[in-house]
Design brief:
CATH superfamily of the largest domain: RNA polymerase sigma factor, region 2, helix turn helix motif
Largest sheet: none
Mean pLDDT: 79
Structural class: mainly alpha
Radius of gyration: 24 Å
Number of strands: 0
CATH architecture of the largest domain: Orthogonal Bundle
Strand content: under 5%
Helix content: over 70%
Low-confidence stretches: 1-15
Length: about 200
């Protein structure tokens, strides 16, 4: 029986060819073949960039992370074994992990900057009493934040520091949506309790 005009039967061998080619390129790169790695880069860089950008939402940072990912792939290509999964899958997995690492590092820096910024904020026109009150409030907030677990701090920073929605945070962290909502709810309750009791 022939296929209808304009339609071709999918060929599983043809579908596996790009993966085999990518695997072969990375294996050759593992022997120091720079040309093979350059071709591997050209094939996968757009997909790796798209994966990273979907997490970071910042083109400049995403480009930096792409370079980090491919540097890591070049350095570890010698250890690559196609039996563990395709080269593209490995590259995309590393891209997602690196992007999440960048978000976590940025979040940690931002929390520190928020604490320092609030603590050091000194309005020029405020009297001394207002300044003292502001510093005490900053210290109470800083102390309250330290009482949260790292997971709760992470959720608070992504939601209120970066403006991610609950579903985006769930996707970014690879956890169920209900878990994100629960972490945020518990974190806000804990912050309120700690802040008011400080």
């Amino acid at each position: 029986m022939t296929d209808p005009p304009g339609r071709q039967r999918s060929d599983p061998h043809r579908a596996r060819e790009p993966r085999r080619h990518e695997d072969a390129l990375l294996q050759r790169a593992g022997t120091g073949d720079r040309r093979a790695f350059a071709e591997f880069y050209d094939l996968l860089a757009p997909r790796v960039y798209a994966r990273i950008l979907s997490v970071l939402r910042d083109p400049a940072q995403s480009e930096e992370v792409v370079q980090e990912v491919f540097l890591e792939l070049w350095q570890s290509a010698v250890a690559y074994r196609s039996s563990r999964g395709g080269a593209a899958g490995w590259a995309l997995h590393r891209a997602r992990e690196r992007a999440i690492d960048r978000v976590r590092a940025s979040q940690s820096d931002r929390l520190r900057d928020i604490r320092v910024g609030v603590r050091d904020l000194v309005p020029e026109t405020d009297p001394v009493a207002d300044l003292i009150e502001l510093r005490l409030a900053s210290e109470r907030l800083g102390l309250a934040l330290t009482k949260l677990s790292m997971l709760q701090q992470q959720a608070v920073e992504l939601a209120y520091g970066h403006g991610y929605s609950h579903s985006q945070i769930a996707e970014l962290l690879g956890v169920p949506l209900g878990t994100v909502k629960s972490r945020l709810h518990d974190a806000i309750a804990r912050l309120r309790q700690e802040y008011e009791s400080a």
